[in-house]
Amino acid sequence: MTQPQNLRVVLASRPVGRPKATDFRVERVPVPEPADGQLLLEVQTLSLDPYMRWRVSDEKSYATPMEIGDVMVGGTIARVHTSRHPDWREGDIVLSSAGWQRYALSDGTGLRRLDPANAPPSTALGVLGMPGLTAYVGLLNIGQPKPGENVVVAAASGAVGSVVGQIARIKGARVVGIAGGPEKCAFVKEELGFDVVVDHHAPDFAQKLAEACPDGIDVYFENVSGHVWDAVLPLLNDFARVPVCGLIANYNDGPADRSGPDRLPATMREILSRRITMKGFIVFDFPKEQEDEFLNVAGQWIREGKLRWREDVVEGLENAPEALIGLLEGKNFGKLVVRVGD
């Protein structure tokens, strides 16, 4: 009898600059058999996130680089296919870190059981998952928006930015979103309820942003860098706060791309003269208690209709490499996920 096959995607080579499809390899290997104390997960949905670009690089970062041949990392929603673990039953739906593969073994460590009756399971990868928690802890711990202040959010239609802006609105701030293209801008304004949205593709983007922020910017949630940061920096008020969550405009930079303008002197001058707080953070810097708080609070906001989300769904694990490449170029619209199984 033919042994069942596990479809997986591994890192084939380290990208230089923009990743290529050939930097990834699709493999078919036998489905592993769980031992006592283990369970076999069948992945249903895979999360694609910008941090993955850092994980495939060998440059020093906050996380250990992946090795060539490793299964690509990623958060997943999975069904317990087979259980030999006393705490888990076949059919349980779980949040896991199974990565880019259809089947994976687990000893139960790090799994979180999900109840589909409470929310669609895929929300645990987005608005009720790592992106939502990132928005919550970064905005409230570092940004600390006050009622009436001006909060500007880059990548406002994305998984993190969309939640940042909605939380800022809930806290009573005036929110300006930055997004790319008319469709994304319309979604941010009409569906998410931001006060103003500016298209960063517009040739007069910097002028439009200045017009949208006549009283300056008190909190800027940085997801992008590049020309967006160039337009934001002159508008920051005294004592502005800048949570630095991502720099997606630079993730694909190769050695030749690093010979452009040096933004550091101008940035440091403004930080000093305006007493700006600019702090990078990783979501896992914050205590587990704040994650529990977030799940309770965000769940209530969703039930009250105050927190909305959008998913961009790609069909088929074999299409994950091209989808990730597109994500790094801003081609996704909402939280990007891959539907792996039924």
What does it look like?
26% of the residues lie in helices and 25% in strands. 41% of the residues are buried. Helix 2 packs across helix 3 (161-170), helix 2 crosses helix 8 (288-303) and helix 5 packs across helix 6 (226-232). The protein folds into two domains: 5-126 and 310-339, Quinone Oxidoreductase, Chain A, domain 1 (Alpha-Beta Complex); 130-284, Rossmann fold, CATH 3.40.50. Strands 3, 4, 5, 6, 7, 14 and 15 form a seven-stranded mixed β-sheet that branches. The protein has a six-stranded parallel β-sheet with strand order 10-9-8-11-12-13, with helices on both faces. Strands 1-2 form a two-stranded antiparallel sheet. It has helices spanning 51-55, 130-143, 161-170, 182-191, 205-212, 226-232, 264-273, 288-303, 320-327, and strands at 5-11, 24-30, 39-47, 76-83, 93-96, 103-106, 112-114, 150-153, 174-179, 196-199, 217-221, 236-244, 277-280, 311-315, 335-339. The chain is built from nine helices and 15 strands. With 342 residues, the protein is an alpha/beta fold. Helix 4 (182-191) links the parallel strand 9 and strand 10.
